[in-house]
Amino acid sequence: MEQAALFKVPLHLEDLLKEGWEGYRIAEEDIEKYEASVDIDEDEISQLWFLPFPNLTHDAWSQVYLGIYNFRTLEDQQKETLYFIITKGVENALEYLRENHDSDIAKNLLKVTTFVLTHFIVEVQKAHLDETREQAPDELPKISSTSKKTKQSKRKENQKWNWNAEKIGTTLDWVLKLLDKCFSPQETPYEIDDKEFISLFARVCYVLIEDHSICKNRELKEVIFAILKVVFETLHYRPSAIAALLHLVRKYEHAAPFVAELIHYLDVNFLKGSLGAEVIREISQYDPVELSKAPTNSKNIATFLCELTDRSSAGIKENLSLLVDQLDCESYFVRNSIVHALGRYLLFLSSETKSEANEQVENAAQLRSSLFDILLKRVDDVHAFSRSKVLQVWQTLVDNKVVPQTLFPLLMQQVVARLRDKSSIVRKNSIALFESLLSNNPFGPSLVLAIFENKLKSYQGDDSRSQRLSESSQLSDCNASIDKEKAMDFYQCAVNFIVKVSEAIQILSTLVWSRSTLDVQEAISCIVTARQFEVDNSDTAVRSMLGLVFSRDASIRSSVIEAFIRLFVGDNEKDSLRRSMDITRGVVHLVSGATVGEVACIQKLLEELASRKLIDSRTIQMLWDIVFEKMPGVQKKQKKPSLLVLALVAPSLQVLISEQLTETLLERMKLWIREECELCSFAFGILQHSPIALKNKKVLREFGSEILNSLNFKERKIEQFERFLTCRLCVLEEFSRTIYSCDEEPSTTAAFVLMSLYDQLHLSLFENSTNEDAMEDDEVENLLEPYALNTLCILASLFYFAGHVALNELSLWESFIRRYRESVANKSSQVEVGTDTTDTEEIIPQEQEDSNANERHLDALLSHAKQEIISKQGVIGKLVSLAVGVILQRQFYPMIKACAISYITKLMCVDESFCEQHLKVVFTVLASDAPAAIRADIIIALCDLAVRYPNLIEPWSSQIFRCLQDSSVEVRRNTIMCITFLVLNDMMKIRGQVSEIVLCLVDSDSQVSNMCHSFFFEVSNKSKGFVYNILPEIISSLSSMKDLSEEHFKTIMSFLFSFIDKERHTEGLVERICQRFRLSEDASCWRNLAYCLSLLSYSERTIGKLANMLKYYGDKLHDAVVFQTFCNILSKARKFSKTEFRAFLDDFEDKLVECQQKQKDQEENEQVTENNESADIEKTPKEDKRKKVKKQVRIVEETSEEEQDEEEQKEPQEEFIKECPVPITDDYTSSEQLSQQVKRLSLRQVLRQRK
């Protein structure tokens, strides 16, 4: 290599090992001599510092080349030496080029120097990438616990060859300088048109882009951009560079944003947008089939297209038709990216049309319209991620105000459809689009349907009138007609939009109870937005999410509370006065017309608002001003909800009412108790939590007298009786609570009111009698006659008030005993702290004896108190026989009977023996044809009794479960609610009543169905295997129900099987369901079992289990439905199966077909034999037939008499069961009924003996 030979750049590094490279070829002897070594002495190295590569000796050239070629096998010191030699040689070459102006020598020198430097970078970078990819996380160096080891490890790391960002930057700077020597316009460039030479520079950049850490380095990124700028300016190399960059994009995920930024940089600064268009054209020409076969490639291409269009949308216009054709690609990644590109192009069009001429604007409008149509159709994509992406694009367009008003109704229609989507991500994006459409709607801040309909009708009426009038001026009339058409189109779009918004809100009201937390939170936000726009049914939707304040999920509770704060206060910060007014107005509106359940939820909400100090003294004062009618401009109907709000917030606020307000309230209550007793009950609720306000002991007795005087119904109409009595009972209930929470001697005051009621009842019953003695038992029969309504009102009040007093007395005694036990426990703990350890052995036994004696004494005291409460000699217990007589009387006023049942059940809560004695009475009324309201109240009472005495209620649990199929919706609601409470608190066990519960899943009432769904959700969260354990029993019981439709069966099973998520549970159900095929002979039962099997999620193991159970269901495959169901199971299994498992599936399918054909052949043979037998029977003589007929007639005559007797005896028995389904003791039955029952029992014994 003494004289520089002409160097031709090879395609690959290893090409120099072949023949044909004169002067630069590496022979075999050179490889053997210098393999894996760079052994150059110091003198020769010093010469290399001043000589360029073409002047190297052949030995030095061979060592440099082989050092690059075998870089991976070199030691760290040799790598460092090679790096030093190459960088120094490049420096010497650049110095040589500054002095030497011979173009041939300079070009040759540039080629050789660039070849060595670029291949060195490529080989080093490849070795570095391979090392990082192959190194597992476990093989990474760990930090040692001792300081000595860390120092040693640091030394070793310093000694290692390190290809870091500094060295990469240094080498890239040399590459850039060599590139400038070739193509820089500032100096005299050595224009080298060799394509392979230009590829050397590009190849370095491509290899570096493969490293994600280099792509994140800003300084290295700028150098790479500068190198590739020169490469792309060389036109003949541009197609190859585009192909290479797209190859990087397909292969490496991190390369997509980097390459997109590179193309945008080149287009903006140098190429004027041409490169982006070429890249998009290249992507548009990809084969969709090939893209779908490689999901990773298609995903990376899609990411790159999104990144590129985010930076610039100019290149889309030229390739728009090609991109639209790719929407049919099977890869949803590609479809998503194209949809994203179309959305970006629409944004680009909207900003571009503002500065264009009229013709261009019209063309752009047509193009926008066609693109909008395409995006509307893409909402119905088959893939969930594609649907969600389209919704995201639409949201971006709406937020940027690109969508015309005519598309708002169509978009809202698509939102309504997507809110019902099965995919949660689609629902999430549809909810976001719904909120965006509302926030950016062009129809105004108030979307009240009636207003827009009236406007539309007025314009339609004006249009019809204008047609009748003569046309005076054509120009003015034309302009007016155009304006009217625009106005009519505007209001028509608004009406259509609002109608669709109302439909969407109905769906959102159901989504707030979704299992997905994300769905719930998004739905809550949308409902609040709709309420702020005053949509018609948004108020109902707001009330539907009140129950979420009791959610177990803290995030949902927080979202609901924040939503109501946003409704009451708004998003903007306000002063305290304005905020208090808004909160007062919002809370009063929310309470108005609320149900009992909603009131409980509002109370919880008010507690949270009070804890956040949003309800302050100013808000309370405003509410009192509304109650006392001091605030101007307040309607009278707001007085009741305002007082209710005060009653609800009273437990949360310690200071609610002052002495002055107390006096004013007491005066108003004396007026309210006559005409507005509901306000009086709310006021009592406030006073319960302000006991200091009632300092005077005579106040409660005075109110008791006022309440008793208000019970007079003589001067009122008969139609007002039910409402009148209901209001008085509510007042009595709150009054009893107020007595026991505020009075120092509550028992005395309650006894005074009870005795006053007794006196009023006596006066009403025996108005002309002078006998004022206590009522006797024979008065019961007189009471069962029709009475005046005034007497009934007093009687109901007596029952109701006595029951509440009994419970309050019990609660008073239990709280007293509980406080006493706590005080004893505190004293004993203090004594233990003060005593020495030496005396503990003597003190502990004595303390135990004293504590046991105290416990026995307290138990005896509580038992004695219970007996005193229910004693017939007491004030409360003397009504027991009267109440039982009223309950068992069939023809009696329902409200009086309800009060009597309330009284009896409350006394049953007091004492266990009393409860056991009267349970039969309660269940008799429950099973009778009593009014639905009474039976619903009994269910609630039984729930309370089950909490207190679970062992007593357990034998009667079947009667409670039977109410799930009651004809009354109210009874079914209360029953499922109570069962849910009892089961979740382990106070009731579900044994044989599972089928009665699951039937509520398809109940006609949506509230019952929703509560049943909630029951299974809560129970499954508490016990994971609950549904798995009861499923076989449910399948058997439902399959045997002939009146259950197939649709309802599938609905129930699809819901229950959604809880089966473990493979071992799936395997167990496969075995247990398959075994049930042999136990049934009904084809409908086989189909139900097969459908249940199709609901399971199968794996390779469970499919194998299903194949092993073929002997149980193989003979049922002749049924077409059963066979098709098993085929569907196999088709689903093929989707997740691996290649080696598909052979097993094919074998299994062949066995199914074989079993089906075998059963069909067997049926055909049986049919042939039956036809032959029937033909033989026809040939038998007629005399044999007559003999058989005579024998059958003789048998029928012998058995008909006995069967007739049995049927006659069964009929009255069934009537008796319907009349009295629960056996009653002789305390409440007549002797005639008992004698009839005995007669029926004797008849049964006679019939059994005859049999």
TrEMBL record:
Which coarse location class describes where this protein primarily resides?
Answer: nucleus
UniProt organism field: Galdieria partita
What is this protein's record name? Answer: Condensin complex subunit 1
Q: Which Pfam families match?
A: Cnd1, Cnd1_N
Q: Spell out the residue ranges making up region: Disordered.
A: 132-158, 1158-1235
Q: Bias category Acidic residues: which stretches? A: 1198-1209
In terms of PANTHER family, this protein maps to:
CONDENSIN (PTHR14222), CONDENSIN COMPLEX SUBUNIT 1 (PTHR14222:SF2)
Q: Which domain of life is it from?
A: Eukaryota
Spell out the Basic and acidic residues composition-biased ranges: 132-141, 1176-1186
Q: Which UniProt keywords apply?
A: Cell cycle, Cell division, Chromosome, DNA condensation, Mitosis, Nucleus
Q: Where in the cell is it found?
A: Chromosome; Nucleus
